[in-house]
Write a structure and sequence with these properties.
The chain has 15 helices and nine strands. The chain has 320 residues and is α/β, with parallel strands linked by helices. It has one domain (9-319): TIM Barrel (Alpha-Beta Barrel), CATH 3.20.20.210. The strands form two sheets. A seven-stranded parallel beta sheet has the order 1-4-5-6-7-8-9. A two-stranded antiparallel ribbon has the order 2-3. Helix 7 (120-129) packs across helix 8 and helix 9 (147-171) packs parallel to helix 11 (196-207). It is globular, with a radius of gyration of 19 Å. It binds coproporphyrinogen III. Coproporphyrinogen III binds at residues 2-6, 15, 20, 47, 49-52, 65, 67-71, 116, 179, 181, 296.
Length: 320
């Protein structure tokens, strides 16, 4: 999950100050950061060290990541003219460092590497709002005020993210995850009209490669069925929906990922352990379950707690 390595002292030592985008552009460093949590925790898959804004940054939209804030842009997307700042991504020319990082990781890893991209709604929200938002007011204004421009923006972002994901798979990623993290800000009707057609197209394209597609967002309880139907193989669940209820919303033939509350990681260990076991018990032995947090790790979390959680999950047997 996002920023899994950032509570690690070895991450902070290697990452140093400066823009995270500069660290991502150095394949040796980015590969080492990808591998750090694998060595420490013994988890069953690795997630590439990169960020969801890398492709739009690489085509020259003008976006950076401010530490402690997130993605920010001084010139938000507002008119059709701004589409000119979203040309097609040429993954080899524009993001060779991502491809190189994946190759180094895959050479070293004995477990699968997950590549990823941001979902078009989530990326659009950063471009339109100019930074993180609570209300997504500007984003919703553009959707309803100028659905044609919204469609053109989604077309551009879908093309860029599809190229990025395809190149990551070609470089050796064994699965991909689409982080449409903030799409839970939409109602089901809004999702159907303003997001579904584009994500469906992206998943159709990626589906041709045959790799599993994981789809994740926060506060998406009311959208889980749609986020499954849109073409995901695995649906990420945050901690708000119990896993058994999530399974009935997502439907048969799909796997779930989640859903330990990352907010409890500073609670006493006995409480954390009970929560971990509750997730496993609610999964009730279903074969399609990737144990994970319901969202990212914050920098203050003690790495020893994460190590103990991995141990409990690995020791767990159904019917225990
Ligand atoms: O876990 C990992 O380290 C994997 C790599 C990864 C990063 N970002 C590195 C990163 C992944 C998978 C992401 C995805 C990402 N980035 C998402 C989707 C997942 C989610 O959390 O919902 C989103 C919304 C972003 C945008 C973003 N980038 C935010 C909100 C922040 C946090 C800003 C902060 O400092 O609190 C970032 C920065 C970022 N991306 C960090 C890392 C390790 C932490 C800050 C740093 O080291 O500079």
């Amino acid at each position: 999950m996002r920023q899994a390595g950032r509570s690690l002292p070895e991450y902070r030592a290697l990452r140093k100050e400066g823009s995270i985008l500069d660290a991502i552009k150095k394949p040796d460093i980015a590969a080492e950061i990808t591998l750090q949590p694998i060595r420490r925790y013994g988890v069953d898959a690795a997630i590439l060290f990169s960020d969801i804004v890398v492709p739009v940054h690489a085509v020259g939209f003008g976006i950076d990541i401010e530490p402690g804030v997130g993605p920010v842009t001084e010139n938000p997307f507002r008119t059709a003219k701004d589409l000119e700042r979203l040309r097609d991504l040429d993954p080899i020319a524009d993001t060779s460092y991502v491809i190189e990082t994946i190759k180094i990781c895959v050479d070293e890893l004995r477990i699968p590497l997950i590549g990823f991209a941001g979902g078009p709604f989530t990326i659009a929200s950063y471009l339109i709002e100019g930074g993180p938002s609570r209300t997504y007011k500007e984003t919703k204004k553009l959707m309803f005020d100028n659905p044609k421009l919204w469609g053109q923006l989604m077309d551009r972002l879908t093309a860029i993210c599809t190229s990025s994901l395809t190149s990551q798979i070609q470089a050796g990623a064994s699965a991909i995850q689409l982080f449409d993290s903030w799409v839970g800000a939409l109602s089901p009707d809004q999702y159907i009209r303003f997001v579904f057609p584009w994500v469906e197209k992206m998943f159709e394209e990626i589906g041709k490669t045959g790799v599993p597609k994981i789809h994740f967002g926060v506060a998406t309880g009311e959208l889980l069925q749609l986020m499954s139907d849109v073409g995901a193989d695995v649906v990420g669940i945050d901690w708000r929906v119990p896993l058994d209820q999530a399974r009935s919303r997502v439907g048969g033939g799909k796997a779930l990922q989640g859903n330990l509350d990352p907010g409890i990681l500073s609670a006493p260990w006995t409480a954390i352990e009970a929560e971990v076991l509750k997730v496993l018990e609610l999964n009730d032995g279903h074969p399609g379950h990737i144990f994970n947090l319901g969202h990212g790790v914050t920098p203050d979390v003690n790495p020893d707690v994460l190590e103990r959680i991995v141990h409990v999950v690995h020791q767990y047997r159904v019917g225990q």
